[in-house]
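Reviewers of the previous submission asked for a worked example of the structure-prediction workflow described in the proposal, so we include one complete record here. The input consisted solely of the amino acid sequence. No template or homolog information was supplied to the procedure at any stage.
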Amino acid sequence: MTSQLTYLQFHLAFLVPVAMFLIATGFVSRSRLDGLSTIRSTGRHSYWVGVAIITVIALAYTTPWDNYLIARGVWRYGDGSTLATIGYAPIGEYLFILVQPWVTALWLAHLSLPATWPSITRPIRSRIAAVVLAAGIGIGGLWLLGTDATFYLGAILAWAAPVLALQWAVGAPQLLARRRLVVLGVAVPTLYLSIVDRIAIEYGIWILSPEYTTGISVAGLPIEEGLFFLVTNLFVVQGLVLYGWVTDRWLAPDGERRSIPRLRSWTDREV
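From that input alone, the workflow returned the following structure tokens.
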């Protein structure tokens, strides 16, 4: 299907409304408003500082990779769907990179973020195992780059592996301890973004090259696109959980968990 739907209209139709919805539902809770006031009055590190940091990192890390894949011809944009480009990527692509972490973070903020951190036994062993897994993902990705049909799949895995290795080296035990929060935090935005990505492909906003993709799809969504949203949302959710853990440890350098006013959840539910 072809259409004159533009990348900007895609944002207005699918990303801005869901972000506004999450903001509106988040601020319904009176306890949430009280929590925000406490954090602002103390001047402590907040959840949203972490979101801003992760957004900047996402833009810096994704931009060269994104531009390379577009230049290589892994995907292109439909006629009339973009207004202007910076490098090889349209402005809408940069906006997407900036907006996605906030959508995921807004969803995660509806869940209960950790107020205390469990003691972990044998933390070094779990970190090493996780880094070895990340290395395996990276090696697998590099191997897949050698074949045209698996090039995009390999590019995603090879690009994701260093970030996963870093996050798992820092806090694999804490992430495993909060695995239910991580899974739920990742699953919902990944499903939503996969659905709207499928719609964008259907309307020809962006077009994947059959040469560099496997041709395997689930409900019309190329598996490469689903994997992309899975790993990028994993980056954001793990990054925010670890940001809370690291800043708590920084605020309590003696290793003792102090009572620190923290951003927990807009609904104050345990996950």
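Residues 30-44, 255-271 have pLDDT under 50 and may be disordered. We consider this example representative of the routine output the project will generate in years two and three.
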